[in-house]
Design goal:
alpha+beta, Methyltransferase, Cobalt-precorrin-4 Transmethylase, Domain 2, two-stranded antiparallel sheet, 7 helices, 7 strands, 20% strand, disordered N terminus
Length: 198
């Protein structure tokens, strides 16, 4: 809760802000590795489904670095929503328990974070620092279709997923279409079989 002291006679106004707001925003931004030139602090995303979807849609094209708070029991749902709205390859820094004993700073992507916390129970308080959107005229493809297909094959093998599900996950993470990844996965497997026969 914020507390304030006002002395109008001497033109003094002091404001103390307790908790995360006081220091964690600046700390998270400073250690995030993301662009610190311009940023926007969003706090917690709305809980109501419709309002949350509207807010995410508005933020999808935000080019400034975005800072969010999240509680551990809601982190995975938020990462899922962010990945769906912004794409899995959006750079993200997760700051956990800043300035505390178990402080953790992890520079990753939305998709990698989503996969990690689908298997690991989050603990502690989180500040999420998201890279801003890249302007449409500057978007470059960072993962080739063949690389996406190879990653899908590896993911399918590791997680024992059907090929279609692995292709779907990599489509969300890379921006390639699911069908293109699936087709390339099949082509790679055929090439591997031909090599084995030789």
């Amino acid at each position: 809760m914020a507390k304030h002291y006002t002395d109008l006679q001497n033109n003094i106004i002091e404001l103390w802000i307790a908790g995360k707001s006081r220091r964690e925003i600046a700390d998270a931004l400073a250690v995030s590795g993301q662009n610190t030139g311009r940023f926007v602090f969003e706090g917690f995303l709305p809980h109501h489904k419709r309002l949350r979807a509207q807010r995410l849609a508005a933020l999808a094209t935000e080019q400034r670095t975005i800072l969010l708070y999240e509680a551990p029991h809601k982190l995975l749902a938020t990462l899922n929503d962010l990945a769906a709205a912004f794409g899995g390859v959006r750079p993200l820094t997760i700051c956990r328990e800043l300035t505390k004993l178990h402080e953790e700073i992890w520079i990753t992507t939305l998709e990698q974070a989503r996969l990690r916390y689908a298997e690991t129970t989050p603990k502690g308080e989180f500040v999420l620092v998201l890279a801003g959107a890249v302007p449409a005229d500057k978007v470059v493809e960072t993962v080739t279709l063949e690389d996406a297909a190879k990653q899908a094959l590896a993911l399918g093998k590791k997680k024992k997923l059907p090929a279609s599900e692995a292709a779907k996950r990599l489509a969300k993470a890379t921006g390639h279409s699911k069908s293109a990844i699936y087709k390339t996965m099949q082509e790679i497997q055929i090439n591997w079989r031909n090599i084995e026969i030789l």
